[in-house]
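Weekly sync notes, structure subgroup
Attendees: PM, AL, DS (notes)

Item 1: joint prediction request from the bench team. They want all two components modeled as one assembly rather than separately. Inputs as received:
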Amino acid sequence: MNKFAPLTALPSYRDQPPQVRERLQRLKQREVILKVNDLSKVFNTPKGSTLALNRINFETHRREFLCIVGPSGCGKSTLARILAGLEQHSSGEVLLDGKPVSEPGSDRGMVFQGYTLFPWLTVKKNVMFGLEINGKDRYEAEQQAMQWLQLVGLEKFADCHPHQLSGGMKQRVAIVRALANQPRILLMDEPFGALDAQTRARMQAHLLEIWRKIDITIVFITHDLDEAIFLSDRILVLSAHPGEVQELIEVPVSHPRSPAQVITPEFLATKARLEELIHKGAARDEDEDEGTYTMVTRLTDVTDDVD
Amino acid sequence: MRNWFQVLKPISPHAKLVLGSMSFVLPIIIWCVISYVPFFWHPQVLIIDPGSADYLQPGMRMDKRAFADAVKEADDDHKDPPKGVPSNPIYLPAPHEVALSLYTAFITPPATQDGPWLHQSLWHSIQVIFWGFVISSILGVPIGILCGTYAGFARLNEPFIEFFRYLPAPAFGALAVAILGIYDGPKITIIVIGTFFQQVLIIANTTRKLDVALVEAALTLGTRKLKLLTRVVIPGILPDLYRDQRILLGWAWTYLIVAELIGTSTGITWFITQQARYQHFATVYAAIMIIGIIGLGTDMILALLGKRLFPWDRTLDKSA
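Output from the run, pasted for the record:
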């Protein structure tokens, strides 16, 4: 296969290599963990009410990695917060293992963009937090916390406070803190958004490694399309104003994933499709509230051209 | 020097030391100049030798102009003119006099036989402050935290507290005496009234400033109700709460003097008023300085203790 095939010659993103198709078939036969039915969210403000999410439907299977992407303002963060139980939905239902979700609980872990580690606790105690809250005794909690820290290679920093760690390390602690509770599902709301590009790439590989090793279903919110394709089995694409499901894309890129795959035709085809979907929404968006910038007045000398 | 005044930039440790010392040295230099340089201010003349003026006595102070008249009068009559040196009014003693008083005030026995020594007066004041502040905190800190945590609780309490804090605490002096007698009860009450209402509002605000994401993270980890308060809210605000308490302790000191005038005058206030009555102004200044030294001293100790207690606290770095 020619790695440098021109974009026009891309296969359709629907063309899945046999092993990928087989894998997705197996995935879809697993039990459904999370089911979202006709979920809508209306924000009531003094200026009137806005429909943030409109009749969202999707489901995830056990050990699936689902990414949710969409233009800014599509309500993807709101969706994650509703799934976590931090926000109430207006209509529809969220079912976790068939049971409706209405408030936060330890069956749904969450990782936020802003780390949210407890600054007064050491790294180890941060990981122990959920375990102790949920009734594990101190000794057992400590044992498990150390195992989790080993999983992300941070056992040496167990007695440090969060402010002594780098951003990537903090986020790894936040991930294992959420995982230590052994939730059914891990919600991640743009968790790597605040990290620099190199750290983000490392964290993505790291996250896939963790996901492969333990029984966890991940719902990952991002606006980074490469990140979404690299990480997920399926991508839920939302449109903005109101947030609606545009398409559920099955990622045709084979497992195990490696950074070299970003130039494979499957990857590029998926990205092209995602961009098409997102830009369609974004273009509509721009007309509405951001305007265009074609009429910028020239402020330099006429002979002084950059091109 | 160029780096000393830059917007929101920290300064070097050397600059910190220099500027920090200057903040004390500069006022003292001004005080020295006024006290020791004869042509600065010195509106009066201290009589050394009354000469022929029989209405003058050595050690008397009089206005410069009146003294000039007296000299002129004596000269006109060809009599011995009075002699004197320029001096400041008696209420502004020189630094060395105050420094000396800082020492002598402690070794001078009380004027009356059953009167308290200075250190006894100070100790009495410290006890009044301590109990006032402790009682205020026992009530104010929990109420403040609850107001900050639960909007409903805040709504129930804060409007009234907001109203009450505008009532000047000393206004309750007479009432406190009528209810609690003339000894320490009303004094402590005044300090409690002066501190408590501010305390609730300040601590409620501090609590509200807690990063709500930390609470949400705790919720997603399965934390519930009371544990959210004890395991997240309280530890989360503790360093700021500690800082608030330090500031509030300073406020309690400002209410001390008024409080001690209520009922029977006691403590450092009694000492100061006594000394002022005898015109021992150097001692009055010394006593006021002792209050400042105790106040700043405790605050510095508490600040150091805070660094030990809350090693994770990042905001400490900026201020110190």
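Discussion: The first helix of chain B runs from residue 13 to 36.
Action: AL to compare against the crosslinking data before next sync.
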